[in-house]
C-alpha cells in the first residue's frame, strides 16, 4: 500500500475544509410578490402538472402538417382561454406509431405543460384541449401525462 498518495489526499481534504468563503446572497427583484394571488399561491396543495404532447407533422418535411402560425392560433383559441394564468410550450421531436402502422412516424412536436389545482373542471378543460386538437388534425391521440405537483410562486 502506498502511504504517500493517502497522506496527500488527507492533507488536501484538511486544507479544503479550512477554506471558507462568503456565502452567496440571492438578489431579489423589487417587483411586488404574487403572495395572496389565488392563481399563483405561495404554496399549494392538491395541484397537478400535466404535459400534453402534440404532433405537428413529419420531422423531415416541415412544410407538411401544422404550421407555427396554426399552432399559435390553436394555442390562442383553445388553450389560453382555459388556462390564462400560465403555461409553457416547448419544441420537441417525437415518435408515434399508430395502430395500423408498421413503423413509427418521426414528428415535429410541441409539449404543453400546465400546472393547476386538480379539479374535475380543470381535468375537463385538459380533455377539451385534447379533443379540439384531434378534431383539427385527425390525430388518433394526444398523449397526456399528469402527476402530483408541489408548486409555489
Fold topology:
Layout: H1 3-18, E1 47-58, H2 68-79, E2 88-96, E3 105-117, H3 120-137, E4 143-149
Antiparallel strand pairs: 1-3, 1-4, 2-3
Description of the structure:
- The chain contains three helices and four strands, in the order H-E-H-E-E-H-E.
- The chain has a domain at 52-149.
- Mean pLDDT is 82; it is low at 1-24.
- The protein has 153 residues and is an alpha+beta fold.
- Strands 2-3-1-4 form a four-stranded antiparallel β-sheet, covered by helices on one side.
- Strand 2 and strand 3 form a beta hairpin.
Q: Main β-sheet: number of strands, strand sense, barrel status? A: 4 strands, antiparallel
Catalogue the unreliable spans. 1-24
Q: Strand order, biggest sheet? A: 2-3-1-4
Order of secondary-structure elements = HEHEEHE
How far apart the termini lie comes to 55 Å
State the share of residues found in helices, binned by percent.
25-40%
Number of helices: 3
Secondary-structure content class: alpha+beta
Features:
alpha+beta, 3 helices, elongated
Summarize the structure.
Helices cover 30% and strands 27% of the residues. It has 153 residues and is an alpha+beta fold.
Amino acid at each position: 500500500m502506498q502511504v504517500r498518495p493517502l497522506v496527500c489526499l488527507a492533507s488536501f481534504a484538511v486544507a479544503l475544509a479550512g477554506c471558507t468563503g462568503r456565502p452567496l446572497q440571492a438578489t431579489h427583484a423589487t417587483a411586488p410578490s404574487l403572495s395572496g394571488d389565488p392563481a399563483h399561491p405561495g404554496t399549494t396543495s392538491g395541484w397537478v402538472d400535466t404535459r400534453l404532447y402534440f404532433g405537428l407533422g413529419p420531422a423531415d418535411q416541415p412544410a407538411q402538417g401544422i404550421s407555427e402560425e396554426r399552432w399559435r392560433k390553436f394555442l390562442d383559441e383553445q388553450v389560453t382561454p382555459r388556462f390564462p394564468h400560465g403555461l409553457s410550450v416547448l419544441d420537441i421531436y417525437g415518435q408515434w406509431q399508430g395502430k395500423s402502422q408498421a413503423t413509427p412516424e418521426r414528428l415535429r412536436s410541441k409539449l404543453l405543460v400546465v400546472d393547476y389545482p386538480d379539479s374535475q373542471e380543470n381535468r375537463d378543460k385538459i380533455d377539451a384541449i385534447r379533443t379540439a386538437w384531434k378534431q383539427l388534425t385527425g390525430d388518433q391521440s394526444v398523449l397526456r401525462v399528469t402527476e402530483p405537483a408541489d408548486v409555489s410562486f
